[in-house]
Design a protein that fits this description.
Elements lengths: L1 H12 L1 H22 L2 H30 L4 H19 L3 H32 L8 E6 L2 E6 L8 E4 L9 E5 L2 E4 L1 H4 L5 E3 L4 E2 L4 E2 L4 E5 L7 H14 L3 H26 L1 H4 L4 H14 L3 H4 L3 H13 L2 E3 L2 H7 L4 E5 H5 E12 L5 H12 L5 H9 L9 E6 L3 E6 L2 E6 L1 H4 L8 H12 L3 E8 L8 H4 L7 E13 L3 H10 L4 E5 L4 H11 L3 E3 L4 H15 L2 E5 L5 H6 L2 E5 L5 H6 L2 E3 L5 H36 L5 H19 L5
Parallel strand pairs: 11-18, 11-20, 18-19, 20-21, 21-22
Antiparallel strand pairs: 1-2, 1-3, 3-9, 4-7, 4-9, 5-6, 5-8, 10-22, 12-17, 13-14, 14-15, 15-16, 16-17
Helix pairs in contact: 2-3, 2-5, 3-4, 3-5, 4-5, 4-10, 5-12, 5-26, 8-10, 10-25, 10-26, 12-25, 12-26, 13-25, 15-16, 20-25, 25-26
């Protein structure tokens, strides 16, 4: 049973080339039979070559004719081939039937090659993803049972062992491991995951066994959405291709009318014999058909989409690949785009008689009970120090946190909050804090009671001032600027981007400090989402094609308004995938310059292809009217230019 299935699959995948091979074989046998004088056998073999080689083109051409009431090049090729065969039978010049069969054969080979080119592009796109396994190990009444991915339901719990692929998106309910998310983000560094974390289909589990609860249907997994987006890009024609499609429909009608005139007028105007007239008219139908022109754009753009996807740049469609190459101005969101969006300890300054470790240990003891990002950054910075977690911790949102550590009260927060517990702040530390804040840093003050203080109850913690409290030091917290941000801005300037601006909801001091470090000259600060939208509109009035780079969530209105919206995809949030035109799956800023370069290169190749296509058409038309080419030569020139243009477009795969 296995071999018939494989044979069926092989014939289905390679139907076009198999049809071309059989057509070529029948053509050769028909020609050989004709050469031997076996006319009946030749007239049996050659029509079979016509049917097998031209069936698909005839079907597509007739479908377009009857359903869309339009002529296309497939039908024109079939008409030209049948016309040559009819002329050969009428004049008993059977070599014309061979010419028509050659036309069918070359057209079939060209179609097969174009099909393989598109398949190569599709394979290149899909190779980005570690395709998910076909089955998953599900837990049923304490037993493991292997089921098909399609059978998974929301709420099912699956087991993933070390070294296995995650079969579908889900939430970890048990276990701890590191996951390689290269299939999703393009980043090979493993990411730690534990209970409550979301995992994605196609990512590779590390050393730990995981129990995962399915929280969405398998077909809604991130990897499947990405694949669907890319497949959608294959079917959505960009504006340039839509123009070519409209041009082709009008052009095909012109060719038919011109072909009819060429087939009827020359005998009366120039005294041509009817055989020459009809033969030249059929050759005209072949060489004037815009097949190469039709192939000038989409193979190039699809190859560019595949190239970008291999680099973690997900283009939603070919139109965005075209537009990104024309961008004249770019607006960047700050937090999470130019910066990592993850705060960290930038600097620790201790008061006299204390050390930096004293400051970090005191702050970490209290902040270990906090879920605030700043608290987590402090705890992480003190990870290598020996500190004791505080008790009776009380947090005041937006101001600070207090707790008891070894019978001493520790106060951590902003200056106003700490001043409620401390008589006065050291002038030296105040100056340093002011300087750091001007540099865009967040300053956290740390204070504690002197030695020998008595323990405190939770009621005592609510007192406005603690007996004997003094400042231990300050901690500067910063949202880390992405390592590649400055280099990216510099590369964009070298690429000729005329205007680069930064948009942020932060205060001007913080925004200006980041912009200065990155070489961005224009900053728009303290913006609401609608303000960012208005900035994009103003930029479009001056620069026309404007790109917006953001996180795909808070920047959704601006991303939608921009000519090209570019989202920092991270693990690929739904909003990022749905709102933006381009998603940087690995959050690598330098890929923006790569995307612009890819867009410009695609435009250059498209222009080259159009010149090649039109050049071949003109040369072949001139040759036909001068009588220097026959039908097979015209076919070879026509189809050769189509294949050449298609292969030229595939250069973007590299």
């Amino acid at each position: 049973m296995l071999y018939p299935q494989r044979f069926t699959q092989f014939t289905r995948e390679h139907a076009d080339i198999l049809a071309a091979v059989v057509c070529g074989l029948l053509l050769f046998l028909g020609w050989f039979a004709l050469h031997l004088g076996a006319l009946e056998l030749a007239l049996l073999l050659l029509p079979a070559a016509y049917v097998i080689g031209g069936y698909e083109s005839a079907r597509e051409g007739l479908t377009t004719l009857f359903k869309e009431k339009e002529l296309d090049v497939d039908l024109l090729m079939i008409v030209a081939a049948i016309g040559a065969a009819g002329l050969g039978l009428w004049r008993r010049e059977y070599h014309l039937i061979i010419d028509g069969a050659i036309l069918i054969l070359i057209f079939a080979i060209s179609g097969a090659l174009e099909g393989y080119a598109m398949q190569r592009t599709e394979r290149s796109i899909r190779s980005l993803m570690s395709l998910t396994p076909d089955t998953a190990r599900i837990l049923l009444q304490g037993r493991e049972e292997e089921v098909s991915i399609s059978q998974l339901k929301v709420g099912d719990e699956i087991v993933v062992k070390p070294g296995e692929l995650i079969p579908t998106d889900g939430i970890i309910v048990s276990g701890y491991s590191t996951l390689n998310q290269a299939a999703i983000t393009g980043e090979s560094l493993p990411v730690e995951k534990t209970v409550g974390a979301e995992v994605f289909a196609g990512t590779l589990n590390g050393y730990g066994a995981l129990q995962i609860k399915v929280h969405k249907p398998a077909q809604s997994s991130l990897i499947q959405r990405v694949i669907r987006l890319v497949e959608q890009a294959k079917t959505e024609a960009p504006p340039s291709q839509e123009f070519i499609d409209r041009f082709e429909k009008a052009y095909a009608k012109v060719i038919v009318i011109a072909g009819i005139l060429l087939a009827t007028l020359p005998p009366f105007l120039w005294g041509w014999d009817w055989e020459t007239t009809i033969y030249r008219a059929l050759t005209f139908l072949v060489v004037a058909s815009p097949c190469a022109l039709m192939a000038a754009i989409m193979p190039t753009l699809l190859s560019g989409i595949a190239n970008g996807a291999r680099q973690g740049i997900l283009f939603k469609n070919g139109a965005q690949l075209e537009k990104i190459g024309k961008v004249r101005a770019i607006a960047f969101d700050k937090t999470g785009t130019l910066t990592t969006g993850q705060v960290q300890v930038f600097q620790v300054i201790a008061a006299s008689k204390y050390t930096q470790n004293d400051v970090l240990k005191a702050a970490a003891s209290v902040e270990s009970s906090s879920e605030h990002p700043i608290g987590k950054a402090i705890v992480q910075a003190a990870a290598d120090l020996n500190w004791v977690a505080a008790i009776q911790v009380q947090a005041i949102p937006g101001r600070g946190i207090v707790g008891i550590v070894e019978e001493q009260q520790i106060i951590v927060g902003n200056a106003a909050f700490v001043q409620q517990y401390v008589t006065n702040l050291a002038e030296e530390l105040l100056q340093i804090a002011q300087y750091l804040e001007q540099e865009g840093k967040t300053v956290v003050w740390v204070a504690g009671e002197g030695e020998g203080a008595e323990g405190h109850t939770s009621a005592a913690l609510s007192n406005r001032r603690s007996r004997g409290a003094e400042v231990i030091g300050i901690i500067a917290i910063a949202d880390e600027v992405r390592v590649q941000a400055a280099e990216t801005i510099n590369r964009l300037k070298k690429l000729g981007v005329e205007r680069i601006v930064m948009l942020t909801g932060d205060n001007e001091e913080t925004a200006n400090s980041v912009a200065k470090a990155l070489g961005i000259e224009r900053v728009y600060a303290q913006l609401l989402p609608e303000d960012k939208l208005n900035v994009i509109r103003r930029l479009q009035q001056k620069y026309q094609t404007v790109a917006m780079v953001g996180d795909g969530i808070n920047d959704a209105p601006a991303l939608a308004q921009a000519s090209v919206g570019i989202a920092m995809g991270g693990a690929g949030s739904d909003v990022a995938l749905e709102t933006a035109d381009i998603v940087l799956m690995a959050d690598k800023l330098e890929k923006i310059a790569a995307a612009i370069h890819l867009g410009r290169r695609s435009q250059l190749i498209v222009k080259q292809n159009i010149v090649i296509a039109l050049g071949f058409i003109v040369l072949l038309l001139v040759g036909n009217f001068l009588g220097n080419i026959n039908l097979p030569i015209g076919v070879i020139g026509h189809e050769g230019s189509t294949v050449l243009v298609t292969l030229s477009g595939l250069r973007l795969l590299k």
